[in-house]
Fold:
Amino acid sequence: MSWLELDDGILEHPKFIRAAKLGGSEAVHLWLGLRAYCGKHLTDGAIPRDMLYEVRGPSNAKKRAASLAVLFAVGLLEDDGAATVQMHDFLEWSSSRDAVLAARDRARERKARSRGSHAVTDAVTPLAVPPVVTNPSPLLSSSTPLTERDPPTPSVFAPQGADIAKADLDSFAPDPPKPKARERKPRQAQWRRFPADFEPDDSHRKLAAQLGLNLAQQLLEIRDHEFAQPKSDAAATLRTWLRNAPKFGAATLGGPRAHRPDPRNEAQDRNADHDARAALEASRKVREMLTFADKMKAGATNVR
Structure:
C-alpha cells in the first residue's frame, strides 16, 4: 500500500487557486486521481494518455475534458508530445520509484530479522544431574547385636489427655448434616374459565347468605364468564366474585335485580349541565353589552 505525499498548504498554491477558479472542484478532484495513480503504480509522475480518462475524477466526459484543459493551462500537467503526460515537479515533492522499492526492501529485511530473533525452537537441552551417593548408616553397619529390653511397666498416672472434657471432644466431631431444602409445592394450573367441577364450601354459602345472593345463580354466571387475567385458586376467586356481585347489580334473594347506572348517561348529564351554564353566562354577557350600547346612544355619562 502506498501513500500520497501532499503538503497541507497545497490548496493555497497559486496554481490550485487558479485551477479551482477556472475548473471548480472537478479540476482538483481529477488532479488527485492522477496523483493517486502515479503513487500506486510508481510511475514517477508519468501518466499514459489513455489513463487520463480512466482514473478517478469527474464522470461526465465534458467536465473531465474541461478539467484536463484547466490543469494543462495552469501548469499542473505538462504535455511534451510523448506517449505519456507528466505531472509538474512530481519528483521534487514525492519519492521516486527506486526510493520506494528500496524502502520496501529494508522494511522486509527488518521484519525477517525480527521474526528470527523471536523464533522458538522445540529442542530440549538435557540438564546434567550429578550422581547422588548415599553412605551407609553406621547404626546399620554395626556388628554389635541389640540387647533385649524389658517390657514397659504400666503407669500409675492417667494417660495424657484423659482430663479433656466431653464438650471439648465433641468440638472435633464433624458437623451434623444440613437439613434438605424444603421442596416447593407444584404450581397450580391456571385457567380463565371457572372450573365446572368446583363445589362451594360453607364459607361461600355463608358469604352468599350475608350478601343476600343466590349462590346457584352466581355459580352459573361465574362459569359463563371469561376472566381477563388467568386464575389458579377457585375458592378465592368465587369469594371475590360474591363480594363484587352487589356492585355490578346482582339480584338479591326476594328482590329485583339492582340497577347499575350507565356511566355514559352520567357523562351526558354532566356535559348537558356544563352547556347550560355556558349558555346562561353567554346570555348574561349579551344583555350587559346591549345595556351598555343603549346608554351610549342616550348619551349617558355614567357608564360602568
